[in-house]
Amino acid sequence: MGADDVFSSSDQKKRVRSEKPPFTLATIKKAIPAHCFHRSLLRSLSYLFCNLTICCTLFYAEQTYIPILPTPLNYVGLPIYWFIQGAFMAGMWVLCHELGHHAFSEYPWVDNILGLIIHSALMTPYFSWKYSHRRHHSNTGSLAYDEVYPPPLKDSIPWYAKYMDNPVRRVIGIVCMLFVAFPLYLLFNVYSRKHDRFANHFDPYSPIFNDSERLQVVISDAGILAALYVFYSLSTAHGFAWFFCAYLAPLLVMFALIITTTFLQHTNPTIPHYDNSEWEWLRGALCTIDLDYGPWLNKVFHYSNTTHICHHLFPMIPHYHAREATEAIKPVLGDYYQIDSTPIPKLLYRAAKECIYAEPDEGSKGKGVYWYRPYNHKI
């Protein structure tokens, strides 16, 4: 049995509706209880403290107990630590994501200070990512202007690419993407839209940013440099192997989990994208899906994966109200809402196989509505 059989597409859901919705943002908002929009600094800090405590406890366990495990149990213990610690670091990153949206508290200065410190420790330039992510929210689903995962068009696919479309190449591509996509996005704007010149998240004069944001990009750079200095000092004092096992490997897992979630939320055969003739903000905000990873990972990720549609509509709702808000808007959204509980490996493989380029349906009136296609798509 090959990978295509294991990861078959028989469980695919029907497409999300792509026509102009019969409801407005105000209609959706009215369905949400008013208290869901309330941000409590103390409650948000309690989640942050809990997440930090778990990460510190896991680090203590890795330092104290894994070294005394008999061989080969110590070699099994380390990867387990890497994955669990990386998952909780991803949960911490999600809270920083809330800080960037000011969904953490009513005090932007508190959000910015905490976000700068914690995101820098997680190798993410806080202000730079905050501003590029804001533009993603402003242009979700736009072929021309979305900042993350805009689908390539058929004409941009090289002629030889279809000859490399096989299960081995797909699996290798998935693994490479998971561990390097986030650094490449920050450094070279890979997996983002094209700008008229080189763009990255560390150049204050990058076309990603406007004049009012450039100083804060420099502050983000300073935060990353400070974190790198601390990491260099720790690596020098304890050795690179110690640093890799304690921090760098979990960080790579964190990158992989972040990319897994953000990629799958925006890359699915069932969700549309729009060109300039059809795109409008509400239709674009609905161009995503929720993902159900099961009770443990859902909780570790603060349910951000199961409430992503609501988050795109109302990004200032804190995560501890987002599930209630999601349940409230489902009857309003109807067929414009979708959640996928397909196992992560199957979702990733399906995206690698079927989400190669985007084009409109033949004969469709909505020529500006684009859908993902596989290489072997027959019109």
Strand content: under 5%
Low-confidence stretches: 5-11
Order of helices and strands: HHHHHHHHHEHEHHHEHEE
Gross geometry: globular
Largest sheet properties: 3 strands, antiparallel
* Average residue-wise pLDDT: 93
Structural class: mainly alpha
Radius of gyration: 21 Å
Describe the strand arrangement of the main beta sheet, using strand numbers.
1-5-4
- Let me know the number of strands: 5
Q: How many DSSP helices?
A: 14
> Separation of termini?
28 Å
Helix content: 40-55%
Describe the protein's architecture and organization.
It comes from Turnera subulata. 55% of the residues lie in helices and 4% in strands. It has 379 residues and is mainly α. The strands form 2 sheets. The protein has a 3-stranded antiparallel beta sheet with strand order 1-5-4, with no helix packed on it. A two-stranded parallel sheet has the order 2-3. Helix 4 crosses helix 6 and helix 7 crosses helix 9 (240-266). It is globular. The two termini are 28 Å apart. The model is unreliable at 5-11 (pLDDT under 50).
Q: What key phrases describe this protein's structure?
A:
single chain; 379 residues; mainly alpha; 14 helices; transmembrane; Fatty acid desaturase domain-containing protein; fatty acid biosynthesis; oxidoreductase activity, acting on paired donors, with oxidation of a pair of donors resulting in the reduction of molecular oxygen to two molecules of water; FA_desaturase_dom
Provide a brief overview of the structure:
This protein is mainly α and 379 residues long. The protein has 14 helices and five strands. α4 (73-101) crosses α6, α4 crosses α9 (240-266) and α5 runs parallel beside α8.
